[in-house]
Design goal:
It comes from Caballeronia hypogeia. GO terms for molecular function: magnesium ion binding; mannonate dehydratase activity. By secondary structure, this protein is α/β, with parallel strands linked by helices. About 35% of the residues lie in helices and about 15% in strands. The longest helix is centred in the N-terminal third of the chain and has 22 residues. Bound molecules: D-gluconic acid and magnesium ion.
Length: about 400
C-alpha cells in the first residue's frame, strides 16, 4: 500500500489544532496530531514543506523504517517541532495499518491489559471553597483521580485555574499574558489546600497536583516532605527537568511520588530520570514524543525501573492524540493514569471519535485504527487564530518558569 497524498490541516474549533492526513492508493487514509501549543505553524510548515513531499510513494506499512528515516534522515535530531511532525506521521500510519487490518490499534499493539483507562480530571478554583466544590463535582461524575489547582492568597494570578466558569485554557489571544509568581506564598499555602481536600473527602480519590516547573529542587523537596500526610498520587513537574540530576535532591528528602515529562520529546530527555529511579511517572505523550513507535520505546524502558505512564492529555493535544493515547494506555503494561481535560464542543464535532468516557474511566472503542477522524469541511469553518501561552514573573519582575 503506497502513500499518494499527505496534507496538513490547521483549524481552530475552540482552540488551534494541526492535523496530518495521509492517503494511500488503496483508498485508506489515516490522521495524526501535530499540535504544538503556541508554535503550531512551525510544525505545520515542517510537515508541509519538508516531510509531506518525502512521504509520497513510500510503503505505508513500513512504519518503523519511516520513523527512522525521518529521525536519522533529517540529520537534526529531536526537538519539539521535529518530534511532533514525526509523531503525526507515525500516528497516521498506525491508523492506516489498523484500518487495513480491520483492527483497533490496541489489538495491534498486543491487546488490552485492562478493562478501561483511568483518567484524571481537573478541579480548579480561585480559592479553597471553589476548588473543593469542583472536586466534589468530579467525585459525582465518577472520577477516581482528580488534580487540584487553586489561586494563592495575595498572588495576582495563578496557573492551572480556569478563568470564569469555562474550561481551563492557558493560551490567550493578542499579547503574551504576564502572570506573577511567588514561591514563598505558594509553599505556605498549598499544603492547606491538600489538607482541606483530605479532611472533606477522605482518601478514596487519587489526589494529583501540578507544580508546573515553578520550584527549585530544594524547594520541591520541602514541598514533597510537607505534604506527605496527604498522600498525593503525584506532584507533577516540581522543578524544570533539563538538569535531570537535580531530581536526586528531591528524592533524598521525600516519598511523595513524582511525575515529569510533558515537555519531553524523546527517550534521551528522561533516560537518567528513569534509570536512576528519580521519578515514578513519565508524562511524555504521543504527539510531542515521536508517536506510538517512540512512546512504546520509552514505556518499555520505564517498565524496567517500575516507572509507570501518565500521559499528558490537555485540551491543546487534539482529540486525535486522545484517541491514539487511549489505545496506547489500554495496552501498555506499566500504565499509571491518563490526563483528560476535555475539549470544546466544536472540537469534538470536527473530530468524530470512537472513544468514550464513563465514570472516570475511558475506552478507545473498537473502530479500526485509532478511531478518530476529521471533518474537513467543518474544520475549514474555523480558521487559525494565533494564541500564546503566558509567561510568569517573580514579584520583582524577574522572568520565571511558567
Ligand atoms: C498539564 C499541563 C498543561 C500545560 C499545557 C501547555 O499538566 O496538563 O501542564 O496545562 O500547561 O499543555 O500547552
Ligand atoms: Mg502539567
Amino acid at each position: 500500500m503506497k502513500i499518494i497524498r499527505a496534507d496538513v490541516i490547521v483549524t481552530c474549533p475552540g482552540r488551534n489544532f494541526v492535523t496530518l492526513k495521509i492517503e494511500t492508493d488503496e483508498g485508506i487514509h489515516g490522521i495524526g496530531d501535530a499540535t504544538l501549543n503556541g508554535r503550531e505553524l512551525a510544525v505545520a510548515s515542517y510537515l508541509k514543506d519538508h516531510v509531506c513531499p518525502l512521504l509520497i510513494g513510500r510503503d505505508a506499512g513500513r512504519i518503523e523504517d519511516t520513523w527512522q528515516f525521518l529521525y536519522k534522515g533529517a540529520y537534526w535530531r529531536r526537538g519539539p517541532v521535529t518530534m511532533s511532525a514525526i509523531a503525526a506521521v507515525d500516528m497516521a500510519l498506525w491508523d492506516i495499518l489498523g484500518k487495513a487490518a480491520n483492527m483497533p490499534l490496541y489489538k495491534l499493539l498486543g491487546g488490552a491489559s485492562r478493562e478501561g483507562v483511568m483518567v484524571y480530571g481537573h478541579a480548579t478554583g480561585r480559592d479553597i471553597p471553589e476548588a473543593l466544590d469542583r472536586y466534589a463535582e468530579h467525585i459525582e461524575e465518577g472520577y477516581k483521580a482528580i488534580r487540584i489547582q487553586c489561586g494563592v492568597p495575595n498572588m495576582r494570578s495563578v496557573y492551572g485555574v480556569a478563568k470564569g466558569n469555562g474550561m481551563y485554557e492557558p493560551a490567550t489571544k493578542g499579547a503574551v499574558e504576564e502572570q506573577s509568581w511567588s514561591s514563598e506564598k505558594y509553599l505556605d499555602f498549598v499544603p492547606k489546600l491538600f489538607e482541606a481536600v483530605r479532611e472533606k473527602f477522605g482518601f478514596d480519590t487519587h489526589l494529583l497536583h501540578d507544580v508546573h516547573h515553578r520550584l527549585t529542587p530544594i524547594e520541591a523537596a520541602r514541598l514533597g516532605k510537607s505534604v506527605e500526610p496527604y498522600r498525593l498520587f503525584w506532584m507533577e513537574d516540581p522543578t524544570p527537568a533539563e538538569n535531570q540530576a537535580g531530581f536526586r535532591l528531591i528524592r533524598e528528602h521525600t516519598v511523595t511520588p513524582i511525575a515529569v515529562g510533558e515537555v519531553f520529546n524523546s527517550i534521551w530527555d528522561c533516560k537518567q530520570l528513569i534509570e536512576e529511579q528519580l521519578i515514578d511517572y513519565i508524562r511524555a505523550t504521543l504527539t510531542h514524543a515521536g508517536g506510538i513507535t517512540h512512546l512504546k520505546r520509552i514505556a518499555d524502558f520505564a517498565a524496567l525501573y517500575q516507572v509507570r505512564t501518565g500521559c499528558h492529555g490537555p485540551s491543546d493535544l487534539s482529540p486525535v492524540c486522545m484517541g491514539a493515547a487511549l489505545h496506547f494506555d489500554l495496552w501498555v503494561p506499566n500504565f499509571g493514569v491518563q490526563e483528560y481535560m476535555g475539549f470544546p464542543k466544536e472540537a469534538l464535532e470536527v473530530f468524530p471519535h470512537a472513544w468514550s468516557f464513563d465514570r472516570g474511566m475511558m475506552h478507545p472503542g473498537e473502530a479500526p485504527g485509532h478511531g478518530v477522524d476529521i471533518d474537513e469541511k467543518l474544520a475549514a469553518k474555523y480558521p487559525y487564530d494565533p494564541a500564546y501561552l503566558p509567561v510568569a514573573r517573580l514579584e520583582d519582575g524577574t522572568l520565571w518558569n511558567w
